[in-house]
Amino acid sequence: MIFKGQGLKQITLGVIIGNRDFFPDKLVSEARADILDCLKKLNINPVILDDQETKLGGVETFQEAVKCAELFRQHRDEIMGILVVLPNFGDERGVAETLKLAGLNVPVLVHGYPDDLNKLDVARRRDAWCGKISVCNNLYQFGIPYSLTSSHVVHPTNPEFEKDLQDFTAVCRVVKGLRNARIGAIGARPGGFNTVRYSEKLLQRSGVSVTTIDLSEILGRANKLDHEESRVKERLDRIKDYAPVGNTPQKALFQIAKMDVILNEFMEENALDATAIQCWTSVQQNYGCNVCTSMSMMSENMMPSACEVDVTGTLTMYAMQLASGSPSALVDWNNNYADDPEKCVLFHCGNWAKSFLPDIEISTAPILGTTVGEENTYGALSGRTPATPLTYGRISTDDPQGKIKAYIGEGQLTDDELNTFGNRAVSQIPNLQGLMQYVCKNGFEHHVVMNASHTAGILEEAYENYMGWEVYKHGSNGSK
User: Which Gene Ontology MF annotations are present (predicted)?
Assistant: First the structure.
C-alpha cells in the first residue's frame, strides 16, 4: 500500500528573521543560510527579505517591519504560513508588527536557536530562549495565533526541526484548505439518516461553502447520455483500469460510467474540492446501480467523496487528506471484534479509495440488495484493508450550541481475521471503550473518517488553534 505524501505539493512560507543589533551580525547571516538550506531540502519555497533590503535581511525596527510586510503582501496568494526565526533574542515588536501589517491571517511557527554552553560570553551569546517568550507574548497581545516547535529552542540542522517544519506545513495546508473548501451536496439527506444533519451556516462562518444540486438533475443528465459517446467510453475504460469488474454486467458498467461523467462535470463546473452524495436508496431504485466506484475513484484522486450526503464527513476526509497527502475513507464504527475491548470493525458498503483496498473488486451491496434487489447494487466495491497506521476522527456542527467541534485520535489497522463482505478493516485503538463513551455522550455521528497516517497532532493544531473549533484528542494527557 502506498499512502505517504502522494498528494503533497510545494508550499510557500514567508520567513521573518528577528534581530537585535547588539548581538553579533554573523548570527543573522548564519541563520539565513541555515534556514534557506533547510527549506530547500524540504522543497519549501521561501519569501524572505534580501540581505541588502534591511540589515542582513533581518527585521528589528518598525521601518524594517513595513518592508517585510509589503513583501509578504505582494505574495499573499502564495504564502500559506510564516516562519519566525530567532538567531538571537530578536525584537518582539518587529515580528508582531510585520504580521499585523501583512494581514495574511495564516499559521505562524516561532523558532529559536539554542545557545552553546561554551559561547555564553557577551560576544557570542544568543538569548533566543528568552527572546522567543517575548515574541510569543507580543503575538498573544496582538491576537495572532501561533505554533511552537517541539523543543523550546532547536538548531535548524537538527532532524527534530525538520519534522516540526514538515508538520507545520501540513497544518498550513489543512488551514488554507478548510478556509476555502468547496463541497458539493448531491441529493437530499436520506430520510433514515438524521445522524448526518449539519449546519451550512456554521460551516460558511469557517470558510466552507456548500453547493447543492438535486439528485434527479444528476440522474436525468446521466440517462440522456448515449453508450456510444466518447466521454462515456473513456470513463468506462478508466473504470476497468481502476478495478477488476468481477461479475458486474456491461449494462451496469455503462450506468456507472455515465453517472461518473456527470459527477465529474458537476465538480468541474463548480470548482468543488469534495462531494457528499445521496445513495441509500435513491440511486439504486431510480438508476439501477451503486455510485460507490465513482466515489472511490474521486477519493483516490484526492477529491474525497462521502455517501449519504454526509457533508461534514467529507469535510473531515478532506482535512485528513490535506494533513497526510494521502486519501481518506468514510467508515462506520460498525462492530465489536469478538471480546477485545480495544478492537472494532470498520465497514461500509464499498466506496473506499483504492489505496485502502489491495484486493479491490467491483461487486454488489448485499445488505442494500435485500430491499432494492442486489442486481441494482452493482458498483459497490469489495476489499479488505490490511495493517497500516491509523488516524481517525470526525468534524461535526453542533447546531444547538452554535459551534463546530471535532474529535481525533490515532491507532492501527490490523491483519486480524475478518470474514465478511464490503469494504472492511479491523482497528485497534487504545481505550476504545472510553472513546465510544465520548462519541455517544457528545452526540457525534456513527460515521468516522480514517486515514493511513499518524497526523492527529497536525489536525488538532489546525482545528483548534487556527480554525477556532472545539477539539477532543483521544489519548492526550494520558487521561482521555
Answer: isomerase activity
